[in-house]
């Protein structure tokens, strides 16, 4: 007996439509090596690399450890001009 095979293409009927993805935050613009950290809001760099942007409202932290004498490498917010 010969069997007839029928190939049925899948349809979207009965399936849930995929929800649109929320826009993922853009990655850091650091150029020396790839950085996949999200950018700070309104900036081009992540928190680790924000000091690369001279126009960013951050400055190097001024804390120096009394035990090791090493400087803190974290960025610190610049005070507003009107705060001084």
From TrEMBL:
It comes from Chiloscyllium punctatum (Brownbanded bambooshark). This is KANL2-like probable zinc-finger domain-containing protein. GO terms for cellular component: nucleus. It holds the Pfam family zf-C3HC3H_KANSL2. Residues 28-83 form the KANL2-like probable zinc-finger domain. It is found in: Nucleus. Coiled coil: none annotated. Signal peptide: none annotated. Keywords: Nucleus.
